[in-house]
Specification:
Blueprint: E1 2-4, E2 9-11, E3 13-15, E4 22-24, H1 29-82, E5 84-85, E6 95-96, E7 100-105, E8 120-130, E9 133-140, E10 143-146, E11 151-159, E12 164-165, E13 168-169, H2 170-173, E14 179-187, E15 193-201
Antiparallel strand pairs: 1-2, 3-4, 5-7, 6-7, 6-13, 7-8, 8-9, 9-10, 11-12, 11-14, 14-15
Amino acid sequence: MKWNEKNKVLIPYRKCRVKTCFFLTGFTLVELLIAISITAIIMGITYACYFNTVRTTEQCRETLKPYKIASILFSKINEDIRGCYNSQNKHQPFLGRENSLKFVSTHSLGLSKSNKYGLHRIEYFALPQGDKRFNICRKEDGVKFCMGGYFKSLQFSYYDGHKWVKKWDSNWRGRLPQGVKVNISIEGKDNQFQTFSSLFVIPCAP
């Protein structure tokens, strides 16, 4: 040990190979305080950045939630309508109302077994959940699947080649509509509702 007259501390040392020099080791109290202060500042900045990132991610997720729900719903409707079939069975017409839609399609989600012709009876409708909210449900051959009570409204309209109408019955009109337009209102961030709209063309329509 060597007495350091300047700092009034004992400092351990070991002799170098050269007899005239000493290798001093150890930290002073001031150096330790500086190191702890720098570490605390870095940890504070890291902590703030991390939680700001988490908060921003949650806000983005809430903002994008209605868009994701609308995208999933429109994708399913598009797949079903692209497989729409003009059934000659009068008991299974294309039956469109303002808030519901029934038709026969070759597309399936695998919820039920298809008949021998590979056809399925598809239905979309709004199911009230209270507090002016709805479940939007898809029924395939009697098997129901609902998307949750995020919706305020569901509206269908049908294009006859000249104008949009609110109802369609293929038994009465003798054919399928050329297109179907769907409007939905979905609950988003801060209980605000956003409206989405999409147009679907029926390939086999005249």
